[in-house]
Amino acid sequence: MRLPEARAAQRRGLKPGESLFLQDDRVDNVYILLDGWAFRYQDLKDGRRQIVDFALPGDVVGLSETAAAPCGLEALTPCSFACYSRKAFFELIGRQPAMGLTLVQMLSHAEARAIEHVTSLGRRTARERVAHLLLELVTRLKRLNLMADTKSLDLPLMLSHVADALGLANETVCRCLSGLRRDGVLVLRERRLKVLDLRRLADEANLSETDAFEPAVPAMPARRFAA
Amino acid sequence: MRLPEARAAQRRGLKPGESLFLQDDRVDNVYILLDGWAFRYQDLKDGRRQIVDFALPGDVVGLSETAAAPCGLEALTPCSFACYSRKAFFELIGRQPAMGLTLVQMLSHAEARAIEHVTSLGRRTARERVAHLLLELVTRLKRLNLMADTKSLDLPLMLSHVADALGLANETVCRCLSGLRRDGVLVLRERRLKVLDLRRLADEANLSETDAFEPAVPAMPARRFAA
DNA sequence: CGTTAGGTTGACGACGATCAATGACGGTGG
DNA sequence: CCACCGTCATTGATCGTCGTCAACCTAACG
Fold it and tell me: Which residues of B touch A167 (CB under 8 A)?
């Protein structure tokens, strides 16, 4: 699933807080996030902000941003992207059928996340949302083999990011995290998360029937895009 | 953008309330909704339900439902689907590059809707959500040339569908609709919606900077899949 | 007619937003 | 070294939107 042509692809770097593109921008390129964390967000006219998704290494962005991007993309940490013209990207896919499959799988995962996100915002309580988001991030990082040790990891997020992702106020997120800490589920301090009881976290998240998060994820055989 | 092969494709019908597939099902086919309304939904373990998206004629479903479907699909009205094996579908796409483009466009639109949906649930008030959903449906139907006259249309939705789509209680939806009617924005009775003031409805929806819904949609040159 | 499903309206309570004060850091300049 | 910020986290007090519970209405149907 590696892209041999990838070496030829343009690179693009981003510092924390910088944007790859803004909401409403015309986006002609397709990007693959090689390293770092970023997020996609949408702004309302009155200033309220909604974070739509977090992008992690291997994720593809820009594919759906055809004419005018429905949302902007901003870096959380220093990021580096491989960047293809839309045309070149599709040619690449066309030449490597296996890559097409991987792409479809990734888009499927992204949509599954979007669906879970909608369900969270629509039907879960504040505490459930917080637990669900943390569980999702832990699961994704595990699949990417990107967790420092098994239990703890760095989250380059401020309260306001979590709040904007979950449709909550900062203070509410803070209270939920305090609660989860008091109850011995996790510790989150100084941007570092330690999950003390994964099963318990999953219970708190009030999962849908579908998503079986934790169960010994079998190391994800299919590789992500990488370059 | 028509599919000549489509005549050969299997058909599948559905009566209101029936499901094409359930959450967690393995879905091997890709379906194109030829006629009717349906919705995709996700259930939580405690019974709460979230409607994720509404499917209208021309929409593709099943693409992202690779291993275990993240959500079920249920018919609102009598529906008919063209149904392809995943393999046949991709062959079809492979043979007709233009179709691939159309597909990408449709997936982009679907994702844009998902993003707007997330924003609605996360950051919009009850009244804004209701207005936004109605505006979205009106816009989609216009593009499909599926509106009876310019101003009014049939919505095969119960209060509970709107409520489950917007993360609200039936009573809240009812109150919002009463309010919008009182204020002369629209009339919704007996499953029939009449928009009295489209611009006003757009204001009520508190649109994101991005989505310019109403502005004289130029009849959507690109055709949807059809068979 | 009686029954049932769905819509409508009111009363009340709860969850989470808002406002405000305080604390913990890290950076900057005197 | 330490006063002075600015940013972000934390906690408490109060308020408002929306969920819940309940009663009633209407239309469809046997």
Answer: 121-123
The overall average pLDDT reported for chain B is: 88
Residue B14 pairs with which residues in a beta bridge?
B79
Report the C-alpha gap between A105 and A197 in whole angstroms. 30
What's the Cα-to-Cα distance from A33 to each of A57, A74, A136, B25, rounded to whole Å?
5, 12, 18, 31
Q: Tell me if B128 sits within 8 A of B205, measured CB to CB.
A: yes
**Closest by alpha carbon to A163, among A150, A176, A148?**
A176
pLDDT tens, A80-119?
A: 999 999 889 988 888 887 888 888 889 889 999 999 999 9
Record: contact A107-B107, CB cut-off 8 A: yes
What letter represents residue B176's amino acid?
A: C
Chain C: nucleotides under 7 Å from a protein CB?
6-11, 15-20
Q: Do B119 and A50 touch (CB under 8 A)?
A: yes
Confidence of residue A166 (pLDDT cuts 50, 70, 90): very high
Å separating the CA of residue B81 from the C1' of nucleotide D20: 39
Give the model's pLDDT for residue B96: 82
Asked if residue A9 lies in contact with residue A83, where contact means CB atoms within 8 angstroms, the answer is yes
The residue among A141, A122, A131 whose CA lies nearest residue A224 is A141
Other beta carbons within 10 angstroms of residue B125's beta carbon come to 12
Q: CA A63, CA A27: separation in Å to the nearest integer?
A: 9
**How far apart are the C-alpha atoms of B73 and B33, rounded to whole Å?**
11
* CA distance between the termini of chain B: 10
> Residue B27: which residues within 8 A CB-CB, separation 6 or more?
B21, B62, B65, B66, B69
Q: Model pTM?
A: 0.90
A115 vs B90: CA distance, rounded Å:
24
Q: How far is CA B142 from CA B56, B138, B157, in A?
A: 12, 6, 18
User: Measured between alpha carbons, how far is B20 from B69 in angstroms, rounded to an integer?
Assistant: 11
Q: What are phi and psi of A72, to 5 degrees?
A: -90, 165
Rounded to 5 degrees, what are φ and ψ at A165? -75, -30
The structure tokens 């006259």 sit at: B149
Residues facing A21 on adjacent strands? A73
Residues 6+ apart with CB under 8 A from B142: B217
Torsion of CA A167, A172, A178, A179, to 10 degrees: -90
Residue B113: both structure tokens together: 């809707």
